[in-house]
Amino acid sequence: MDFKGRNKVSPEFSMSSMTDIVFLLLIFFMLTSNNVVQDAFDLKLPKATGKAEHKQNISVSITKDNRYFIDKKKVSLRSLAPNLRKELANVHKPTIIIRAEEGVKIENVTRVMEIAYKNKWGAILAVQPK
């Protein structure tokens, strides 16, 4: 008597299920990566070798000894935000150019950036060309 089984196991491995899983993971990561939002300032930094082609609305200068100027007019840190709001009240898409003297603490620059961010203004950090 010959008792051989009719069902034979194939020694081949099918990759179709593995490719399905890989494509599902790829689609999942592509869809979820678009929803990642970074909480940062919207800054436009000009290159040091070129020219910024952005219309200057107002400039804020910061000196090493923590003095603030709006277009050469000295203001205190407390009155900086109200003065900027008054100056930029009727300007469409206002932009602030931040001119920080070399050696100014980063905290002083970020104060001006926070004011621009809270008021939804653009901010550009000015650099000296090479």
Q: Can you walk me through this structure?
A:
It contains three helices and five strands. It is of the alpha/beta class and 130 residues long. The protein has a domain of 68 residues: Nucleotidyltransferase, domain 5, CATH 3.30.420. The radius of gyration is 29 Å and the shape is rod-shaped. About 8% of the residues have low confidence.
Roughly how many Å is the radius of gyration?
Answer: 29 Å
CATH topology of one domain: Nucleotidyltransferase, domain 5
User: Given this structure, which CATH class of one domain is correct?
Assistant: Alpha Beta
C-alpha geometry: rod-shaped
Helix content: 25-40%
Give the second-level CATH assignment, the architecture of one domain.
2-Layer Sandwich
Adjacency order of strands in the biggest sheet:
3-2-1-4-5
Give the end-to-end Cα distance, rounded to a whole number of Å: 94 Å
Give a count of the beta strands, DSSP E runs of length 2 or more. 5
Return the string of H and E elements: HEEEHEHE
Poorly predicted spans: 37-47
Count, helices: 3
β-strand percent reads: 15-25%
Largest sheet: 5 strands, mixed
Structural class of the secondary elements?
alpha/beta
- Report the mean per-residue pLDDT as an integer: 77
List keywords for this structure.
single chain; 130 residues; alpha/beta; Nucleotidyltransferase, domain 5
Topology overview:
Blueprint: H1 16-33, E1 58-62, E2 68-70, E3 73-75, H2 77-87, E4 95-100, H3 106-118, E5 122-125
Parallel strand pairs: 1-4, 4-5
Antiparallel strand pairs: 1-2, 2-3
Describe, in short, the structure shown:
By secondary structure, this protein is of the alpha/beta class. 32% of the residues lie in helices and 16% in strands. It has a domain at 58-125: Nucleotidyltransferase, domain 5.
